[in-house]
Design goal:
The structure holds two protein chains of two kinds.
Chain A: H1 2-20, H2 33-63, H3 79-108, E1 115-122, E2 125-130, E3 164-167, E4 171-174, E5 179-185, E6 190-193, E7 200-203, E8 209-213, E9 219-225, E10 238-243, H4 245-254, H5 258-276
Parallel strand pairs in A: 1-5, 4-10
Antiparallel strand pairs in A: 1-2, 2-3, 5-8, 6-7, 6-9, 9-10
Helix pairs in contact in A: 1-2, 2-3
Chain B: H1 28-33, H2 38-68, H3 78-114, H4 122-141, H5 171-200, H6 213-244, E1 255-256, E2 259-260, H7 268-301, H8 309-322, H9 340-366, H10 375-398, H11 400-406, H12 410-440, H13 446-473, H14 490-523, H15 581-589
Antiparallel strand pairs in B: 1-2
Helix pairs in contact in B: 2-3, 2-4, 2-14, 3-5, 3-6, 3-7, 3-12, 4-5, 5-6, 6-7, 6-8, 7-9, 7-10, 7-12, 8-9, 9-10, 10-12, 10-13, 12-13, 13-14
Amino acid sequence: MAVAIILLLVAIASVVFHLFSPWWWTPLASNWSYIDHTITLTFWITGAVFVAVVAFMAYCVFRFRHQEGRQAAYNPENKRLEWWLSVGTAIGVAAMLAPGLVVWHQFVTVPAGATEVEVMGQQWQWSYRLPGKDGRLGTSDARLVSADNPMGLNPDDPNGKDDIVIQNDDLHLVLGKPVKVLLRSIDVLHDFYVPEFRAKMDMIPGSVTYYWFTPTRTGTFEVLCAELCGAAHAQMRSKVVVEEEKEHQAWLEKQRTFAELSEQGNVSKATYRIGSE
Amino acid sequence: MVDVRFDTIAGIPPAEVGEVDLYHPRSWWTRYVFSQDAKVIAVQYSITAMAIGMVALVLSWLMRLQLGFPGTFSFIDANQYLQFITMHGMIMVIYLLTALFLGGFGNYLIPLMVGARDMVFPYVNMLSYWVYLLAVLVLASTFFVPGGPTGAGWTLYPPQAILSGTPGQDGGIILMLASLILFIIGFTMGGLNYVVTVLQARTRGMTLMRMPLTVWGIFTATVMALLAFPALFVASVMLLFDRLLGTSFFMPTLVEMGELTKYGGGSPILFQHLFWFFGHPEVYIVALPAFGIISDLISTHARKNIFGYRMMVWAIVAIGALSFIVWAHHMYVSGMHPYFGFFFATTTLIIAIPTAIKVYNWVLTLWRGDIHLTIPMLFALAFIITFVNGGLTGLFLGNVVVDVPLSDTMFVVAHFHMVMGIAPIMAVFGGIYHWYPKVTGRMLNEALGQFHFWVTFLGAYAVFFPMHYLGLLGMPRRYHDIGETAFIPASAHDLNAFMSVAALIVGFAQLVFIFNLIWSLFKGREAGGNPWRATSLEWQTPETPPGHGNWGKELPIVYRWAYDYSVPGAARDFIPQNEPPAKLSAQGAHP
């Protein structure tokens, strides 16, 4: 009796916790409301199954608990029942999988007009690169990484000269404009993770990965690293600012291009050389 | 149902080969230490696994202290936290659960349940244990080498696993890989034994479709492990070469702390594929023995045949086969080609169907049963609840697009602890309470068992159920301290503190269990040969605990399946597998 009640209470407490939990996903700031909807649907289906199974168990424990003179029934199989349960389960599974795959197709299909933005991870900081006026990012190579060229950009690539390089600072994005985030790393695995955007992808040294989204809300959002990357994994933070087009232009003006930065590097090197002479 | 229950005695084939004489121990050393008796090896495996498991338990306390009360304990820093999670995960998954289910339960139960005198290769079986012990000692030694154990996470993903930004880059990672290699060598020796014993050493009448589901679970899991562990073996060897010899299997051109390394051309994703080709079947290597054990516990303690036995067997085999084509659902956000997501999400969700069938058949076995709420039964009920809970959250993570926001968060931690931590441990405890009387001849203490059960089940549920919601919130895993983060409210820290307190209480309850194991060995109630009135062969041995060779002079002959409980017209509510039909009809006529 007591056992049956406790089992039932576990199911009820789980549902009550779910309904009243103050811990819930962060307010969405991207177009991926589809993902949230799929999660909600999955909660409904799985929640119903969980409650049904536990309640049935609790009922059995209550109704068929051992009492003097009780004998269990003898029924090895019931093909029809097993068949119906399998079909019902398959339908439930399909109801979650089908929308999931549809949304995944959207997730991996980048719209044609998406702006490319590069995020580079290294132990333990984030760097960003935006294409310049030509709208194209130059190539890069981990072998070119140096104190003057921390992102390892290719100085001989004309496309890269006007690329805007952002180090130790926030990334700014334009509200309502689709972004294709190109992800790379120069040392270990990282993962560019902004909970409000819902999207996430590992960054791998040696290749470029990507995902896309459209920012739908202005504000400042915290960037975390979601793939274990060593001792200071938890401190690898940055911020993304989503703003209107006009503010974004004003911000862009203040940023410096790869060409400007390398020139500055050369000048300081030259100064150093003169000084030492 | 004729093929699983009793057909006529004509179904019993004559013995084709005579019995081979067993190896007989000649001294105390060969009887109890370098023993070739599967029952002694089983106890050695179990004690070693539980001993190293206690280390992992203590590590979990330290992790929970840090997460619940960050900054309070000055002796835990970021490096140590990573080392704790790595060692905790590796020990629990491989050195505790795998070793305990296959080496412990497998060694003890397979020969007894199929009516064999011992494993078919006793000497290799003995070696298997000693190599396993060596693997455990090498693993434990990493706590004492300079730099300490590796902190690469239990998945040991390169490049960080072997670079200097990760703690334990010196000796820790090398010894970890060496220990894994040893473990796999030891396991392979034992595993071949279990498979050959089940296929070749069953007693007369014990057809495959009459075996208890425990044997089916352990057998299938062992076959899977023999196929899956080689992937981890080669991955470990290759990673060891990358670390020691400077090869670049998994290492692309990369920069280490501002300096260009000599590595180049390797693929970090390749390691992940190899790791999870092992790692996903590993989940079921732990789950299938638990499925089998739970089936037998429920059937015995509800005094009812397992519902849909044949479906249960095929579900085990189907899950085992399917689990080899779902591995990349651990890698949806790894950067592999995104189109793989369609395939792996589909296969992953298909596994839910045979798994759900198992759950239905367990609860339908309870239906119209005669449920004795013994400690093993309670653990079986708790297994179903935690397994269903963890299995259902698996439908979130398996459904590729839903996994994107949840991957690498506490949701994943909660999910896999529920489904392959708590649930299998419930099966382990249920199994120990159930078979301890056979192993020792004495019952475990009931009152201590009740205490242990309720604190462990409710406490563990209170730790891991709310944890899902921290993941939903976006709290990442493997953070020693979430610190000041804009989207994390203060209440999340309170919840973390609550979970830590609950975890410490659950940990304490395990000490009560260990005490019970030792105390009952001397003071427990005498059990007799078959205290649960069970049908399967291990309860029909002439001696309890079973002597060397298990069966005295004559091997048992099996006439029926393992689930003849409450057969209408029978004198008792169970009919042992080795009871001939003639005797049954005689009993039926004269109750």
